[in-house]
Amino acid sequence: MEKESIFMQMHRGKRPFEGSFNQGLQRLFYLADNTNSIKLVRAFPEFFGNEVPEFGIFIEEKTER
After folding, report:
1. Residue 12: which residues within 8 A CB-CB, separation 6 or more?
2. Which of 10, 15, 20, 40 has the fewest CB atoms within 10 Å, i.e. is most exposed?
3. pTM, full prediction
4. How far, in Å, CA of 20 to CA of 59, rounded?
5. pLDDT at position 1, please?
6. What is the pLDDT of residues 30-48, one digit of tens each?
7. Cβ density class 9-40: b for 16+ within 10 Å, e for less
8. Contact (CB, 8 A) for 62 and 40
9. Is residue 12 helix, strand or coil?
């Protein structure tokens, strides 16, 4: 079973009483265009996870050479 991100839990109504910072991130995501949505996901992986496939966002993980 894959772990659901805080964002998706909030999106699905499973975490209705989150703090104002998380609520603000969620609102920003909904208002942002695709480029800025990707920036938010990259900046806050602990909130969004590494991808938000329901919204078509997939972040490639960097590999070291």
Report:
1. 4
2. 20
3. 0.84
4. 25
5. 57
6. 999 999 999 999 999 999 9
7. ebbeeeeeebeeeeeebbeebeeeeeeebbeb
8. no
9. coil
Q: Which sequence spans correspond to the domains of the chain?
A: 6-58
Helix axes 20-31, 34-43, angle to 10 degrees: 150
The yes-or-no verdict on residue 49 having pLDDT over 80 is yes
Phi-psi group of 20: left, alpha or beta (phi > 0 → left; psi -120 to 50 → alpha; rest → beta): alpha
Amino acid letter, residue 50: N
- Block residue for tokens 């900046």: 43
Three-state secondary-structure class, residue 54: helix
pLDDT of 16 above 90: yes
SS3 14: coil
The answer to whether the beta carbons of residues 47 and 29 sit under 8 Å apart is no
Number of H helices, E strands in the chain: 4, 2
